[in-house]
Specification:
Helices cover about 35% and strands about 15% of the residues. The protein is built from ten helices and eleven strands.
């Protein structure tokens, strides 16, 4: 496992750090000059740094060398080199200034990638992994199980994913440490580590609609519906990485009408071939 630090004030770079974490690396995204300066001692212990040059210069800090109002990344590069002259650095920036380009080319441990080239995520990841001497392979497909009260289905699914499909141990939220966080903070933290999600839609809650008779209907837990919507938004419905597993008798949200679900009424093992096929064809380009 390599330690990779991304220094860029573009929040979209979270996608890059997520991809690297899916592959089993320790990746962190530092989103400001000030944050990078404060953590410089940790940054220089990285195996590789991805650095943007175009970042705003903080008020009150004297400018030095080639650093201008919007090129604070050059100052960070200088600070890194004072502490670690051999650290591989991939400069990923839109800067075209020839003076800066010449200074970067003079550093044998710096690679330059222009943002104007718009490299694909996969090719960018390959450049990073090559910098640490690692061959590029398929990312780790880290599963996450969203569940309600059906413990039998949850444990059967966990066992199937680990022991039959040989995926990593699934993330189950209540099994993870709280570390003083709110539930939503904890959920967001572990959700960011998920590459494929299995939503167990089981008939846990009894409900009645006010305009209907007193007939009782069964729905999945509210947290299950919320988390399913969250993952569909983050991972994308078309990615095939959010799998909805439904048992009989559960009323589904009207928004997912027509979406083909996996029926687990007869148990996880009975639906195993369908689950395996969906996992096999899930989008790995993330």
């Amino acid at each position: 496992m390599a330690r990779i630090t991304i220094i860029d004030d573009d929040r979209a770079m979270d996608l890059l750090s997520d991809n690297l974490r899916y592959r089993g690396h320790e990746a962190s995204h530092v989103s400001s000059f000030e944050e990078a300066v404060a953590g410089i001692a940790t940054i220089v212990d990285s195996d590789v740094v991805v650095l943007d040059i175009v970042m705003s210069w903080p008020a009150g800090r004297p400018k030095t060398g080639l650093a201008g109002d919007h090129t604070a990344g050059m100052e960070l590069l200088s600070e890194i080199r004072k502490l670690n002259r051999d650290l591989p650095i991939i400069v990923y920036t839109a800067i075209e200034d020839q003076g800066i380009r010449s200074a970067l080319e003079a550093d044998a441990r710096v690679q330059f990638i222009s943002k104007w080239e718009s490299p694909s995520l996969q090719s960018f990841v390959a450049r990073i992994l090559n910098a640490i001497g690692e061959e590029v392979g398929a990312p780790v497909l880290q599963p996450f199980i969203v569940h309600g009260h059906n413990e039998v289905a949850k444990l059967a699914l966990k066992n199937f994913l680990q022991n039959t499909l040989h995926l990593p141990e699934p993330i189950i939220l209540h099994e993870q440490p709280n570390q003083g966080r709110t539930i939503i903070e904890k959920f967001e933290h572990y959700a960011a580590q998920a590459a494929i999600v299995f939503v167990l839609l089981t008939p846990d809650d009894a409900v009645a609609i006010s305009t209907d008779s007193d007939e009782v209907k069964r729905r999945a837990r509210q947290n299950v519906i919320f988390e399913m919507g969250y993952f569909l938004g983050v991972l994308g419905r078309g990615s095939g990485r959010v799998l909805s597993l439904c048992s009989g008798g559960v009323e589904l949200p009207s928004d997912v009408t027509g979406v083909v679900l996996i029926d687990i009424s007869a148990g996880i093992d009975a639906a195993g071939e369908l689950i395996r096929r969906e996992v096999e064809h899930a989008d790995r380009e993330y």
